[in-house]
Amino acid sequence: MDQPNKTNLRFLSVTTLNILITFFELVGGLLSGSLSLISDAFHNFSDTFSIVLSYLANVIGNKKATPKNSYGYRRAEILTALLNSIILVLISLFLLFEGIDRIQHPEAVKGAIMFWVAIISFIANLSAALLLRDGSHNNLNMKATYLHLLSDSLASIGVIIGAIFIYFFNLTWIDPIITILVSLYIAYESLPIIQQTFRILMEGSPDIDVEHVKNDLLAIPEIKDVHHFHSWSINENELMASVHVNLPDLPLSETEKIYSSIENVLKAKYNISHVTIQAECTRGLKKAMCLSNEDEDNDIRNGK
């Protein structure tokens, strides 16, 4: 089975499983009076929503580039990862306030029902998370969805432990405590994804040492100087760059060979998949590697 079809099948399986978990936990939470189960049911419902979004983003992201979208549609997955992570943070805040409220207004909880519902939910959540684990290593969108499901699995472990304490020791206050701990964990896992997606969407430069780039390019014999270097990410895997290089007054056929050398260096050492190169003789010579937009505009106006 090819990779797109395999990914689609995983998303469909996880979505179906998650819908079943949601209803199962909601009924179990109402019957047992467990806030942590009811909260986890709402969490699973949000997971179902996020999985559907992730699937749609995956389909859109695999569309071919067009003249109007020359870099393709890979940013759809970044936008979805951001939305999913924001939803997770909002859910964590909801669970936090609900947990605090339940501590102040305790209610009876049936530990036995809570325990068995949590056991089954844990197995189902973990199975769903494992279905997406492989694809989460190099895809922020799938990683956000994977973290949704993994956080549900951890929440179920907390509910299981809480159910044991409630059943044997009648410690009903442990139910909202678990809810609060889960909410904090969800926020902790989500905030780095939000930070990374914002950096990509704001065209932030990847973690590349520009001075190393300059030295590597200056090692190519024909290059006299390097300046106006910019790098950015289309998504977490595709890096782009543009750079100006000062060369001798060479025929175009010779310049193309130098271009190939530049592309090979940037691909091999910095994983830059696409680079736009501007060759110059003396224009911009000894300029800084990275200039502000205002500096570059001044250079253009002054013919430097």
TrEMBL record:
The lineage of its organism: Bacteria, Bacillati, Bacillota, Bacilli, Lactobacillales. It is found in: Membrane. Residues 15-202 form the Cation efflux protein transmembrane domain. InterPro entries: Cation_efflux, Cation_efflux_CTD, Cation_efflux_CTD_sf, Cation_efflux_TM, Cation_efflux_TMD_sf, CDF/SLC30A. The chain crosses the membrane at residues 12-35, 41-60, 81-100, 112-132, 144-167, 173-194. It comes from Liquorilactobacillus mali. This is CDF family cation diffusion facilitator. It comes from the Bacteria. It is a multi-pass membrane protein.
